[in-house]
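Lab notebook, bench 4. Continuing the backlog of folding jobs that were queued last week. Each job is logged with the same field layout so the records can be merged later without manual cleanup. Today's entry covers YARHG domain-containing protein, a 97-residue chain. Filled in by technician R.K.

JOB TYPE: sequence-to-structure
TARGET: YARHG domain-containing protein
LENGTH: 97
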Amino acid sequence: MRLLSVEPPVLRLAFACLASSITLSRAFAGFPCDELRAERNSTYKDAGYCFKTAQAIREFGNADCRYDDIADVPLSAADRKKIAEIVADERRNGCPR
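JOB STATUS: finished
OUTPUT FIELD FOLLOWS
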């Protein structure tokens, strides 16, 4: 029987943050590029962003999207900080953009 239907990257992040007092950026530091990208894009998806790339549309879809320009996406301060930390980790890890 399957009790949780949470994606592994999200689950690992939740446990990492709960298990210690590390900062969010430290929690993302060990994530592979595809998991960092997925976490960043899921935040944009939840806020209503309309994806442009075929890969992002395939993975997240554009159903119920409302914002074509990423600058128009209404994000909380916490989400903006989270995205900034993910982007910084993507750069440190040499992830393609």
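OBSERVATION: DSSP finds five helices and no strands in the chain.
SIGNED: R.K.
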